[in-house]
Every structure is written in C-alpha cells, then in structure tokens.
Amino acid sequence: MSKIQVMSENLANKIAAGEVVERISSVVKELVENSIDAKSKCINIDLLDSGTKSIRVTDDGIGMDKEDAEMCFLRHATSKLLKEDDLFFINTLGFRGEALPSIASVSKVDLKTSQGSVGTHLVIHGGTQVTLEPYAARTGTIIEVSDLFYNTPARLKYLKSDTTELANVTLYIERLALSHPDISFSLTNNSKKIVFTSGSDDLLKTIHEIYGYSVSSNMIEINVSNDDYDIFGFISKPSILKSNRNQMTTIVNGRCVKNAEVNKAINDGYFTFKPDIKYPVVVLKIETDPTLIDVNIHPTKQDIKFSKIESLKELLTEAINESLKKALLIPKIEVKTSEPYYNEIVMPEVHEEEIPYSEIEQTSIDFREDKSFESAVKEVETSSDASLEQNELIKKLELYPAGVVFGTYIIAQNDDGMYLIDQHAAQERINYERVLHALASDKVFTTTLLIPITIELSSSEYLKIKENINILEELGFKVEEFGVNTYIVKEHPTWLRVGLETESTKKIFDIIIEGKHLFDRVKFQDHIAATMACKMSVKGNEAITLEQAEKLLEDLVLCDNPYNCPHGRPTIITFTKYELERMFKRVMN
Fold first, then answer.
1. 140 and 60 Cβ atoms separated by less than 8 Å
2. pLDDT tens per residue, range 32-80
3. For the whole model, what pTM was predicted?
4. CB atoms within 10 A of CB 76
5. Do the bridges between strand 282-288 and strand 248-252 make them parallel or antiparallel, or are there none, so unpaired?
6. Distance between CA atoms of residues 386 and 224, nearest Å
7. Which of 117, 292, 436, 546 is most buried, judged by most C-beta within 10 A?
C-alpha cells in the first residue's frame, strides 16, 4: 500500500495558514487588501480586544454574487490571475487565492456581500460551511473573522499581547492609508478610534492626518522621473528623525513594500544630513512597468525585486540629496501655547521579527489637531518656494557672536533673531568641506617632512597597506617601506592640520586597513574627510575667543551645507525675535 497520500483540502489550508496568517495584522492585511482590490472608497476596520476576539472589515466595493462568495474560500481560487502571462502584469494587491481559505481554516468567518440586489450571507467555522443564505444588503462586503486560531491552539499561544497586536495592525493601516490616499480608512478598537483618514486623494493631507502637524509641515516634495521609474512623494527635513525605519514608507505600483536596497538608497540621499542611527519620515510612490518588478517572492508579498534596481537607487539618492540641499534646514524653536493632549493608548516597542514590515517604535496616538492641514500646506509651500533663494541669502547672513555657553555653544544675533551654534559641529562642517574639496581637486598640494613619520604595523596590516599603496599616493602621501612591517611617510597633503600630522596620518592608514568604501571612491573620500574634520575641529568645552567665534561663523555661512556636521547633527538653530518676545510675554498673540 502506498505511503504517499494527497492531504485533505482543510489540512492543506491549515498548513498554508502558517505562512499567510502569522498574527492579527496578517488577517487585517489580507481582508483590507481584498477590499482595495474591490475598488472600495471607504474601508472600516473594527477590532474587539485588538482583534483577538473579532476583526470586522466593512467596505463599499463592488461586492460578490453567490457563486463568487462560495468560490473565494476555495484554495487557489482568484479573479486576479487567469493565465500565466498575467503573473508578469500584476496590478492588484492579492493574486494567489490562498488568504481567505487559510484564514477560514483557523477561525470563524461571517461574510455578508452584495452587488446591489440580493446579497449572500455565508458562515464558515474552521473551514466547514455552516450557513449559506440570501441576504438583503447594500453594495459592498462585510467580513468578520472571530476566534482566530481557536482550532490550532499551538498557534494561538504565540500571539503577542493585545497592545502589541494592536500596534502591528495600526502600523499596517497607516501604511495602507499612505499608499492609497484616495481611500478613507477608519480603524477602531473596542469602539475607540485609532486611525482615520478622509480619502481626499491628497498625499500631504494624509500624512497630516496620520503623523500630525509637526511632521506634515516639515516635509519636502519629491517629483522625479527617468526612463524606468516615476517617483512622487514627500521626505522629512533632518529636524524630523525617528529611531527606526517604521516611518520610511515606500509604495511600488500601489503596493506597500519593504526593500533593503531601496531603504539604503533613501538613507544615502540623507548622507551627512542626519546621524546614521536615525531615520527620516518618508512617503514615496514609485511607479514602473509591472514587468520590471517581481512581487511573487514572499508569502506576505511584502518584499519585491527590481530588474533595474541601480537605475532606481541612483534616481532616489540624487533626488533626495538635491532636494535637501535646496531646502532651508535651520531648525526653529516653536513656542507652544498649550499642553498637548494624548490619547491613553501608547504603542509599545516591538521587534522586527514580530511584525510584517518592521519594528514598532514607541509612539503615542494623538488625535488633537492643534494646527490645521492648511497651516501645514502653507509651511511646506513657503519652504519649497523660498528655500533656494534663502539658501543663497544665508551665505550673506551676518551673525554677531555675543558669547559662549558651557564652553560649547556660541550665542549669536542679528536683526532677525538669536542663533545657537555648536562650535564643534560648525567647525567640523567647515573642515569637512575644505578637506573634501581638496580631495576632489585634480592638483594635490603636499608638504615635505623634515622628520619622516614612522608607522609600524602588524603583518596583515602591512600587506593591506602594500596592496593599496596607490591610494595613499593619490591622496598626497609619499610612503616608503622601512624595515619589517614598517612604513615611513616623507610627504603628506597640506590639508592635514598643523600639529596633528602624525595622528591624522595614522588614522588614514587605519581607514585603508579597515577597507570600508575602498571600491567606492566618493564614499571613501567622504569617510576620510569626515574623520579628519572631526580630528581637526575645536572640541566642546574648549574655550575660544569672540574673535575666533566670529571667524567660525563667517566660514560656516559660506559652506555648501551650513546646517549639519558631516555626521548629520545640526550646527545651528534659531529663535526668531517674535518667538523670543512671545516667550517673555512681550507679545500675546
């Protein structure tokens, strides 16, 4: 007798559920994506106890007739792929036909759907049909999933706490709302509203509805194209940064995706505008020919492959970097006139492996709109229209130092307001650009040493330097072998700071031995410039005179980017005269 047998449909669905239905957010994802594919314009998601008891999704889509209502719970039954060639032209969120039967096999499902006439009411418990009857309903679909994993207790015990599951669902709905600003989304838990968007088809307004005024008023519009990709969306100024990538939302042909190479390209665009450990708020829509992407590489369809990824990365990085350079990036101190009100729900921190997209940052949900969307739009438009002109004017900005606080922060003023400048970050930026320009120059200026610098290395380090000796020569160093595992440096470039020649040379040797960015000359030179700038610059708590402070400010405003040090920290912040007068109640409006 044969030992190999075909497993039952119900068992196959339970196994498939292990891949498709990982947690509450997985169920919400599949149900809501079906509503979007059904051309819905209003989608309500109502949870009981964060979805552990019940998940109900109500939409105003096209609905289904009786036959389709039954067929949709059969494995691999789909209306979205009819022939093999369709797999290369996918323009819907769902297409495999696995989600609904998988969900139905591990829960109790109540479906009510109608196309405008007589509707259908279908109830399934654990994959077994319980009820099928006519139903009088409006056009659209209401599907309720309750008692998830009631018949697979091993899966049930791996669900996280209610608050964690709610955090996962909330993050996903926020991303969906950003990817479909033309659809109104509403998420409630135990009748308390968590997320609401108006469906205005205005991406900036949707950003405002999800993240609030402080984010939406500090966004920069991106709108670029090449032969393969069209990119539209918004990126935040470096003053708005998060501790993880949760707010980096990339949307490809209407699908929210997570792609490491795309995220890296976005971060590269912010290079020197932010610290490496911080991440911007980004909402970018990428449109491309469906034949250039493959979404069928992960059970949750959260990852994607691009056939022309280098073209996309170059476009993203250059567009973001150029937009940041044109924006006026001096942070302003805003005076708050009232205490913020926060909803009592606080989202916990969740690790990346626990959610479909990325880790949840600790977040408070705030429904109080202290400033209107119109104010945020005005802020963005004013910034966009005037930034290029103001960035030219800042090079003529006259700042008069008035003193130094804590031996670190220069206080300066002019007719417009008061400025605080971090002396180390400011001089770091000045030195960084000076070294970078020297490295990029065709002509290298060097200094001959009366007493050569001797550098002794280990055998492996010695060989690494020997392999890359040409790089040192291109930088302006004249290096010769001198005994066992030792080099002597007879000449060095003139941009090394006087008094720090030996320390700086050893640091450059270390950078080459480390091998980071050796094959990317732009990043390699940038790494050297940033490292040398830090070594050359005045430190915090190091006393400087007002004359030195004045010279530092004169040099800072002439930099290509005077707003950040090469590691992304701000160099300068400002209080306007009006804001100071409000703080001291000299003006009351």
1. yes
2. 988 998 899 999 999 999 998 999 999 999 998 888 888 888 866 565 5
3. 0.71
4. 10
5. parallel
6. 20
7. 436
How many Cα neighbours within 13 Å face the side chain of 307?
10
How crowded is the C-beta side of 523, counted as CA atoms within 13 Å? 9
Mean pLDDT, to the nearest integer, of 294-300? 60
Q: Report the distance separating Cα 589 and Cα 587, nearest Å.
A: 6
CA distances (Å), origin 124, targets 366, 471, 578:
38, 69, 65
Three-state secondary structure call for residue 512: helix
Euclidean distance between CA atoms 186 and 193, whole angstroms: 7
Report the amino acid identity of residue 204.
Answer: L
| 3-class DSSP assignment, residue 29 | helix
71 membership: H or E segment, kind and range: helix 66-71
Query: CB neighbours of 516 closer than 8 A, spacing ≥ 6?
Result: 524, 527
Amino acid (1-letter code) at residue 550: E
306 φ/ψ angles, rounded to the nearest 5 degrees: -110, 135
3-state secondary structure 237-288: CCCCEECCCCCEEEEECCEEECCHHHHHHHHHHCCCCCCCCCEECEEEEEEE
Which tokens in the block code for residue 559?
């930099």
Q: How far apart are CA 10 and CA 16, in angstroms?
A: 10
Integer Cα distance of 130 and 40 in angstroms: 28
Are 244 and 256 in contact, with CB atoms under 8 Å apart?
A: no
Q: In angstroms, rounded to a whole number, what is the distance separating the alpha carbons of residues 247 and 279?
A: 8
Residue closest to 566 by CA, chosen among 526, 520, 521, 517:
526
The 10s digit of each residue's pLDDT in 153-206 is: 766 766 778 888 899 899 999 999 999 999 999 999 999 999 999 999 999 999
The amino acid present at 436, given as its one-letter code, is L
DSSP state of 298: S
- How long, in residues, is the chain? 589
Select from 381, 266, 270, 369 the least CA-distant residue to 325: 270
Which one-letter amino acid corresponds to residue 148?
L
d(CA 43, CA 478): 69
pLDDT bin (cut points 50, 70, 90) of residue 395 is low
Amino acid at position 491, single letter? E
Residue pair 20/98 in contact by the 8 Å Cβ criterion: yes
Residue type at 183 in one-letter notation: I
The pLDDT, as a whole number, for residue 255 is: 85
CA torsion angle 64 67 68 74 (round to 10): 150
* Cα–Cα distance, 164 to 202 (Å, whole number): 30
Query: For 538, how many CA atoms within 13 A lie in the half-sphere containing its CB?
Result: 20
